[in-house]
Amino acid sequence: MNPPQRKHVKAWLWPLGIILAAAGVAAALMLTQQPPPTMEEGPREPLVETLTVESGTHQLEIAVQGPITAARRVVIQPQVAGRLDWIHPDLEPGGVVEAGEALLRIEDDDFRLAVQEQQSRVTEADAQLRLELGRGKVAERELEMFRGEFSQDASPDLALRVPQRETARSRLDAARVALEQARLQLSRTEVTAPFTGWVEREQAALGQLVSAQADVATLVAASHFWLQVSVERERLAHIAIPGVTADSGAEVEIHYPLDERTLTRRGKVVRLLGDLSPQGRMARLLIRIDDPLRLEHPDDELRGIPLLLDSFVEASIIGPRMDNLIELPRRALHEGERAYVVEADNTLAVRDLDIVWRRRESVLVRSGLKGGERVVLSPLPFAFEGMPVRLEAPKGRVQEGGNE
C-alpha cells in the first residue's frame, strides 16, 4: 500500500473508532442500569370522614337581634316659675334617683306668702258667713213678731237675709278654693321623680331662673327596658306569645359584650307587634327586660351597669323541647337537604332529610336518619348510591339532647 492510500485509510478509521467506543459505553450503561420500580396502584375509593349520630331531645332556640329602647322616658318640667335653690346631687347624666325623691326645689317664699294671704281671706270669709248667719236669726225673730204687718206679696227670703247668707257662703267657698290653689302651687316648688330611673339628660343649674314647663332633665325608667326583634313569620308558631300562642311569654336570653366579657340578661316575650319590619317584612316581637340596671340585686357585681339604650344586641328566644330529633352539622348536608350514610359494607346510601329546625352551625332532622348511623362529613362532588368508600378514624357520637 502506497503512502497516499495509507493516509486515506487513517482518515476514516479515526471516526469509526470513536463511534464504536461511544456505542460500547452506551451499551455498558444500558446493561448496568436498574429497571424503574413499578408503582403499585392504590385503592380508588375516596377517604371520608364520618360522624355517628344519635336521636335525642333538643331545646329549640330562635336567634334574634334588635335595639334596646326605653320603656318609659319622661322630660322633667317644673309647673311653676322661680329660681332653683336646691338640686338633687344625682340629678346629672348617669345618676340614679328613686321614685318620689325630690329632684329640685324652687324658692318658695312668694308661694308661702300667697298661702298665708289666702288663709287670711278664708278666715275673713268665714267670719262674714257667721255674722250673716247671726243676722238671719235676728231677722227670723223679727219676722215672727211683725208677721201681720208684712204684705202677702213680700218675699220671706229677703226678710230672712237668705241672699246675703248665700253670698257669704259662696265667698267662703271661693276663699277655700284659692287657699287650696295656693297650697298646690307651694307644693309644686318641689319637683319629685315620678319613678325610679336614671338621668339621661340634665339642663338645670343652681340659682337658675326657670319658667313653668321648661325642660330641666330627662329621666328613663329603670324598672324595665324594651327589646324589639324581628322574626321569620313561619317561626312564630314555635314561640310562646301571650294572647296569641300561649298564656305566658317565652323566656329570652340577651347577650351583649362588655370589655372582654359577654353579659347575659333575662327577658320575656310580652307582645306581638301589629306591623311588619320595614326591612325584610318580618314579624316583630316586643321583649321586656326587667331591672336592666340590676338595682334590685345589691350584691350583684354588675349592679348599676346598664343595658345601653339604642344598642344593638343579640338574643335567643327559648322555644319548646322536641323529642326524637337528630342534630347534624351543616357540612354534612349535600344537595340542599340530603345526607350520605355509610352502610355496613362501606358503601354510600343517599338519604333525603326532613329538617324541622335550622341552627347557625347545625340542623335538626326528624326523619331520614337513624340513631347509630354513620353520616359522611367530607365533601363528595361525584357521590352516588352504592359508591364504595374508605373511612377515617371515627369522630364519636353526637351527644343526645345537645343545644346550639
UniProtKB/TrEMBL annotation:
SUPFAM superfamilies: HlyD-like secretion proteins (SSF111369)
Species name: Vreelandella zhuhanensis
Ranges for domain CzcB-like barrel-sandwich hybrid: 74-219
Record key words, sorted: Coiled coil, Membrane, Transmembrane, Transmembrane helix
Pfam families reported for this sequence: BSH_CzcB
Family: Belongs to the membrane fusion protein (MFP) (TC 8.A.1) family.
Classification of source organism: Bacteria, Pseudomonadati, Pseudomonadota, Gammaproteobacteria, Oceanospirillales
Coiled-coil parts of chain: 165-192
Name of the protein: Efflux RND transporter periplasmic adaptor subunit
UniProt cross-references to NCBIfam families, sorted A to Z: RND_mfp
